[in-house]
């Protein structure tokens, strides 16, 4: 069915049709025209497992995403982000991306303090810089290096700028940090937990039995 004919159907019928489409089909349809770009949100409408499988397959099997080397020009290939489920340029990824993060009981990334036993260590799959900033894995004063060797920094207004090209944010006048922010709850392997305190129990002396 052509997209023009699909647009003529009632919205309820369109929603039923959309619900049967996989992630790849939703992406293709959303790129058809302005109407479907505003109507279809592949991220929200697709099944999470389907998004995962598609982005892994796209990064591996689609020719435009593979590494290539022509003469002295080398392209490392594109990489998949497991947060937004997009395959993106290597310039969108931090080469020293955190592999672990601690999250608190509310699901927030621990960044402003040392993690405690109440926090949970979670492994991180690959995520792009944009998603890292949005989720709090990259925060103001972080300094990043992309997989293409470009240096970036995160401003206090959460904008990401190249350095040394932009050392003062044109939006909020924040300055590039002289040194990277110390990482606390992100990218720290779990330390060996200290032994649990033993309960202090006082044992009363057994009563001495007197012979009759």
TrEMBL record:
Entries under InterPro entries matching the protein: F-box-like_dom_sf, F-box_dom
Stored SUPFAM superfamilies: F-box domain
Source organism superkingdom: Eukaryota
Residue ranges of every copy of the F-box domain listed in the record: 3-49
Chain residue ranges for the region called Disordered: 184-212
Protein name (record): F-box domain-containing protein
Organism (species): Hapsidospora chrysogenum (strain ATCC 11550 / CBS 779.69 / DSM 880 / IAM 14645 / JCM 23072 / IMI 49137)
């Amino acid at each position: 069915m052509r997209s023009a004919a699909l647009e003529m159907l009632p919205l309820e019928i369109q929603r039923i049709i959309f619900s049967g489409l996989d992630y790849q089909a939703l992406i293709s349809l959303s790129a058809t025209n302005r109407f479907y770009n505003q109507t279809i949100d592949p991220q929200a409408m697709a099944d999470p497992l389907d998004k995962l499988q598609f982005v892994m397959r796209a990064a591996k099997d689609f020719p435009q995403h593979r590494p290539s080397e022509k003469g002295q020009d080398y392209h490392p290939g594109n990489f998949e982000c497991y947060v937004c489920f997009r395959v993106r340029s290597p310039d969108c990824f931090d080469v020293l991306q955190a592999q672990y993060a601690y999250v608190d009981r509310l699901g927030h990334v621990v960044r402003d303090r040392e993690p405690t036993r109440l926090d949970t260590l979670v492994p991180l799959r690959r995520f792009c810089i944009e998603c890292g900033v949005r989720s709090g894995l990259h925060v103001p004063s972080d300094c990043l290096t992309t997989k293409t060797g470009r240096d970036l920094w995160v401003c206090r207004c959460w904008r990401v700028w190249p350095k040394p090209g932009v050392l003062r944010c044109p939006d909020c006048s924040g300055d590039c940090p002289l040194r990277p922010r110390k990482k606390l709850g992100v990218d720290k392997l779990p330390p060996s937990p200290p032994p649990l305190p033993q309960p202090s129990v006082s044992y009363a002396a057994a009563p001495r039995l007197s012979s009759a």
